[in-house]
Amino acid sequence: MCELLGLRGLSVKVMIDRNTTKREPAVNTMEVGSLAPVSFERDPVDYRGTGGVLHDVGRQFEDGEYILAANAAQVLTASLAETTVRLADLDADVAIVSHTDGTPSGISLIRCGALRELPPEGFVDFKEQALPAISGAGRVRVLELDQTIGMPVRSLTNYVQVVRRHHQRRDGRRVDEPFFEDWTPAFSIVEQGATAHAGAMLHDSVVLSGGSVEADAVLVQSVVCPGGIVARGRRCVDELIGGNDGPKGRIS
User: Which residues have CB under 8 Å from 154's CB, separation 6+?
Assistant: First the structure.
C-alpha cells in the first residue's frame, strides 16, 4: 500500500472496545516490516460509536491526512491496497465501498478534517449520523463494486463459510461459477495443542488448541473451542462446542 500510494509509512491501529473482556496483546506495539508499526488501543471513552471513535482518533492527525477505516469482523477477498488506491482516486472527504448486490462493506477512506464536523462528545454512529453530517459540508463519494471485497465473520456460519472459501480458492476451485457444486468438504483443521482421534471425521470443521474429539465422532461445519470435548461416536452439525471462559464443555 505504501508503494502504491507513494507513502513513507503507515500507522496501523487496532481499536478495541473499551468495555470488552478481551485483553490486548502483552506487547502493545509490534513492527511489521519497517513501514507499518501496529498498535493495539482501547476506545478513549465509553459509548462513542464508530463515528465518535474515528473523530477522537483523528484528533492526532492534520486536516489533510486520511484514515482508512476497516471493520475487523471480515476477511477480505480482494486487495486492500488496490481498493484503497481506487478510493483515493475519488478525491473525496469520505469515500466508501458499496456493492451492486446490496451487500454492505466495512471499508472507508476518510479525510481527518471532515471528522471535525462530528460532535466531540456523545454517541455518533458513522453511517447513520456521521455521513449525513459530513455530506452537508463535504464530498462523500461511493466506489460501487460488482463483486464483494470481503466476507463478514460475525457468527459460526460466517466463520465456516469464510474458511471454506479460503481453501476452495487456494485449491484453484472456481467458486464464482453459477453451477459450482458446494456440497463437498473443503477443509478440516486441527490446531497444534488439540487432539482428534484418527477415527473421527471432520467435515469443514475446526478443533482449536485445547479441544478434543474422540474416536468415531463426526463433526460437520462445527468448531471445538479450547476445553471442548466431543465424545466417542457423537455427531455434531453446525455446533460450537466448549468455550474459552466457561467450564469445559463435553458433548456426549
Answer: 73
Distance CA 12, CA 35 (A): 10
Pick the CATH number of 2-151 from 3.40.50.720, 3.40.630.30, 3.90.550.10, 3.30.1330.40: 3.90.550.10
Cell numbers placing 87: 478510493
Tell me: the pLDDT tens digits for 153-196? 889 998 998 888 888 877 776 655 555 566 678 889 999 999 99
Q: Which residue spans of the chain are classified as CATH 3.90.550.10?
A: 2-151
Look up the pTM and report it: 0.75
Q: Cα–Cα distances in Å, from 117 out to 65, 93, 106, 110? A: 15, 11, 21, 12
Ramachandran class of 26: left when φ > 0, alpha when ψ lies in -120 to 50, beta otherwise: alpha
Minimal CA–CA distance to 241: which of 200, 153, 250? 250
